[in-house]
Amino acid sequence: MYAIAYEDFLSLQRPFTLRPGRNAGFIAALAVCALVVGLGFVLGGIAGVVIGALGIFGAVGAWLYEKAAVKRAQGKHQKTLSDAYQGIHCRDKRSFQADKDGFTTACRCGVITRPWNEFVSVGEVPKFLLVGTRKGTELIPKSAFGSDGELTEFRSLLLGKLNQIAAPMCKNFEVSYTAADFRSAHWLHVWKAGGRSRLIYSLISAWGVAVIIYFLLTNTKSIDVEAPTARIFAFIGAVLFWALPAISRLRSPKFLPARIYYDSEGMLVVNTANRIRFSWDQFIGYLENKQVLLLYLNPRQYRLIPKRVLAGRPSEFYDVMQRQLRPYNHKNLAPSVSPSPLKT
Question: How confident is the model at residue 222 (pLDDT cuts 50, 70, 90)?
């Protein structure tokens, strides 16, 4: 029997990272205020002083609002985590047992026994073993084991089951990633997987912001700005509106080097952190360009395979993949070709 402690649960969650002054909304507001101060400097005179003062007061107000917003967001984050922990069923009394035929999970809700062909992955974090099944992930605290020897024995059992899957998959290749791979995958996704419409929408919105700024500067009687100057301020405002939120969403992808085993039934991805297997019917299609191959699990998630790692064996992998998957079409998310289920 074991329980999931709140402190252990928190170790699985992303920490709260928002900090006052580092968020895109505040940076955009500060840039707009700086734009207003700059406009006041260009105008000069009493009108310029008033406009510059408004920009300064706006910056102070944005900072105070930013601090309050971050504090509210932190409180909401803590409440969300607490609610999520309270929503874990039978968190104070669970059990997990495994033998050569399958594994059994038990709690006050009932007992469920599954065969090993529903076991899909095993991962490890400092305080938990993550046992992935087709129905979800079981969290097993390492503190539930009586000794390091018991933990090692249980880990070996799980890894052995996944090794049994890899054994008949004699075809495999190593995968490593570069920044160029991620850039190529990003633009392939943008242009061929529906991201283009979001990009166009954001550009149209930025253009609308530029039009509004230009109209206000050239049609407000108290602001005497010539058309060329108004165009410059409108352009700067549009760039800030479009670029700052996009930059804030950038994340540095972190994919460990891995070895991928494959056959007509699926793939097994093995790296130093975990082992995950996919049946082909988990994918909804694929996209490719000259640099990368993307296998889509859903419209926003894909497995990235750089084509350079397929040197010498592209036809082998393509033959298997194309028999199981069709090209991804974001306008038609019909299931891909139906392959047979994975076997152990």
Answer: low
